[in-house]
User: Fold this.
Amino acid sequence: MTMKLLTGDLSPYSARVRMQIYAKGLESEVEMAPADGLRTPAFIARYPLGRIPILEVGGEAIPESAVIAQYLEEAYPKPSLLGGTPLENARIRALEHVGDIHIMNPMYSANAQGRRSTRNNGTRDLLAGLAIRGVEALERLVGADGFACLGRLTLADCALLPGLFLVQTIMPTIDVPDPIPGLPKVNAYWQAIQRHPIGARVMVELNRGLAARRALLREAALQAKAPPGR
Ligand SMILES: N[C@@H](CCC(=O)N[C@@H](CS)C(=O)NCC(=O)O)C(=O)O
Assistant:
């Protein structure tokens, strides 16, 4: 193995990179390492952004899922998850931006608005509105054949699958209706990409991470209710 990916089952940005690694057949090149100690001074001293995924290559740590994705395409061009022309690449990257900047970023931030007792409704509405705008744009942009574009798996699918997973998972927790079922093209794409063998594999990991997170939260709630001394 020549590279190490600091990752986590439930991390959507890490899922984006794992999906690319699986699609490119790079598993024998990349050790998957669950990230420990996020937000600790030691972690931040080593990885200044303090976020995952991180790809370690030859002593260097590459942050940011989009940058890692680009590095992997450049270092391992075949099989390509990009297009065959600059215009095709622009189409892929526009859809990647929809998944990353317009859907994943606001949805990931909205996660902090899940608890009603501490929720700021203005913040919740702003973040949910941004993500809904991204999903509505996707309705006009996404392919009708089960892929984001070009009729095959590309970097666009790697960013969109975790983005739509977050929409489906977070919207109910912040008391906003999930927009996906009301958007026929997005909904058809969402159903299809989850059935793609590589999409399905990443969904198993994301759902495993979600189940583990929910079990931890249940345990913490029980502990908080337990009488002192128990
Ligand atoms: N723009 C970054 C976002 C990465 C990110 O926010 N990762 C989350 C996990 S999915 C994280 O590490 N969060 C830690 C924190 O918020 O302190 C990327 O694309 O990699």
